[in-house]
Automatic annotation (TrEMBL):
Reactions it catalyzes: Hydrolysis of terminal, non-reducing beta-D-glucosyl residues with release of beta-D-glucose
Record EC number: 3.2.1.21
Organism: Undibacterium cyanobacteriorum
Pfam families recorded: Glyco_hydro_1
InterPro entries in UniProt: GH, GH_1_N_CS, Glyco_hydro_1, Glyco_hydro_1_AS, Glyco_hydro_1_beta-glucosidase
Protein name (database record): Beta-glucosidase
UniProtKB keywords: Carbohydrate metabolism, Cellulose degradation, Glycosidase, Hydrolase, Polysaccharide degradation
Catalytic machinery residues: E361
UniProt record similarity statement: Belongs to the glycosyl hydrolase 1 family.
Keyword Protein transport found: no
Enzymatic class: hydrolase
GO molecular function: beta-glucosidase activity
PROSITE patterns, A to Z: GLYCOSYL_HYDROL_F1_1, GLYCOSYL_HYDROL_F1_2
Length: 453
């Protein structure tokens, strides 16, 4: 290992005693039980049932069978020494139809799940929307239809009234970029559209639903802490040519500022608004004020930086990503760049009046395998976590107010359009037997968290 990859010394005692240590999961990726106890189809069920959409032709009808094995999974989380657990709530499991009918059995599942977290000393962090829109709403236009905002508010109201006595930390949306752009611009995710104008309208309605939900949660939940989790990327130009520098600014405008600016009261960035022209979203008076409601925290999902070059024949932004094959990468092809986390967090502190931040996702996919002796030797993932936590500590020492870290993910799962080809978990899942095996990375995380002071 060269000096740039030498593992830093890392101790839990160097972090604050009240620092949150967790893992993140999402409902569609782990629960399974697709037709069980009143759950109705989501857009991802429909997407996975469409030939050619999932790389390995799989679906999430069983996934990790978490709906039946949640106690075992929470036992694992407790055994690692976590003090927080981030999960998402399946809208199609809780609200049965376009009329907003509540499925009591589905709601009870999450009530039991939260009780299980609390019994194990895990602070519950609930994500209300992690991409699994009910198909009955997509049939009415999905997030392009402003009525979906009201449907989301009803969902949030039902959940928070039932669970708000036990859940104090709420994330309204996970990665609106993916909901809007991957779902409706490049078609990589459900519902699989390829319409830039639709994607921008979806983005606006998702952000609006966030803004309107924050005060609702605060009304329903005493001492609620409400935020949003954004997928953010530090960017660098492919060269020092003026056109690549300008392209990087444009890319930043849609990738990062299109979300950060309105959330912090600046409206959509004018340079990008002018660039997208007729594709700009339709808004009502008061929308931007609603979106800019103050946050209690900002969730930052960090995986990799992006390198940008000018691409005049690639509208609407006239940019493209470059790929340097000499850089260290995960099995997914993502650059491994721990210092990018420092760059990103410092930029957020410098450019925006950000509230306290939490790293709500950070992790890596590698080609894990179960060895004959029953072990899973994922030393690359272990080293990835060590290096990124050291970067997080560097950002904290530079004055960035980061108060917690959630590894992605607790267990291997259904990785969206990749199916089961990508493993991100600290825990290995044999998808045929559903056997759980702690990987080397999980054993390291456990030892790090439980090390004596």
């Amino acid at each position: 290992m060269d000096d740039s990859k030498r593992l830093p010394e890392l101790r839990r005692i160097d972090f604050p005693t009240d620092f949150l240590w967790g893992c993140s999961t999402s409902s569609f990726q782990i629960e399974g039980a697709a037709d069980t106890d009143g759950r109705v189809p989501s857009i991802w069920d429909s997407f996975a049932a469409t030939a050619g959409k999932i790389r390995d032709g799989s679906d999430a009808r069983v996934a990790c069978d978490h709906y039946y094995r949640w106690q075992e999974d929470l036992d694992i989380a407790q055994s690692l020494g976590l003090n927080a657990y981030r999960f998402s709530i399946s809208w199609p499991r809780v609200i049965s139809d376009i009329n907003g009918t509540v499925n009591e059995v589905g709601l009870q599942f999450y009530s039991d799940l939260v009780d299980g977290m609390l019994a194990r000393g895990l602070q519950p962090w609930a994500t209300l929307y992690h991409w699994d829109l009910p198909q009955y709403l997509q049939d009415q236009g999905g997030w392009e239809n402003r009525a979906t905002v009201q449907a989301y508010l009803h969902f949030a109201d039902v959940i928070s009234r039932r669970l708000g006595d036990r859940i104090k930390h709420w994330i309204t949306h996970n990665e609106p970029w993916c909901t809007a752009m991957h779902g409706n611009w490049d078609g990589m995710h459900a519902p699989g559209k390829r319409d830039f104008k639709a994607a921008l309208q979806v983005c606006h309605h998702v952000l609006l639903s966030h803004g309107l939900t924050v005060p609702l949660l605060r009304r329903n939940v005493a001492d609620a802490k409400v935020g949003i989790a954004l997928s953010l990327h530090p960017l660098r130009p492919a060269s020092d040519k003026p056109e690549d520098i300008a392209a990087t600014r444009r890319h930043d405008g849609l990738r990062n500022r299109w979300f950060l600016d309105p959330l912090h009261g600046r409206g959509y960035p004018q340079d990008i608004w002018d660039l997208v022209g007729a594709a700009a979203p339709q808004m009502h008076d008061g929308d931007l004020q609603a979106i800019a409601v103050p946050l209690d925290f900002l969730g930052v999902n960090y995986y990799f930086p992006e390198v940008i070059q000018d691409a005049p024949h690639n509208p609407p932004l006239a940019t493209s990503l470059t790929h340097d094959p000499t850089l260290e990468r995960t099995a997914f092809g993502w650059e491994v760049a721990p210092h990018g986390l420092v760059t990103l967090l410092k930029r957020l502190k410098q450019d925006y009046p950000v509230p306290p931040m939490y790293v709500t996702e950070n992790g890596a996919s590698y080609e894990d395998r179960l060895e004959d002796d029953g072990s899973v030797v994922d030393t690359q993932r272990r080293d990835y976590f060590i290096r990124h936590l050291a970067a997080l500590q560097e950002a904290r020492q530079a004055g960035v107010d980061v108060r917690g870290y959630f590894a992605w993910s607790l267990i291997d799962n259904f990785e969206w359009a990749e199916g089961y080809l990508r493993r991100f978990g600290l825990v290995y899942i044999d998808f045929e037997t559903q056997q759980r095996t702690l990987k080397i990375s999980a054993l390291w995380y456990r030892d790090f968290l439980q090390a004596p002071n």
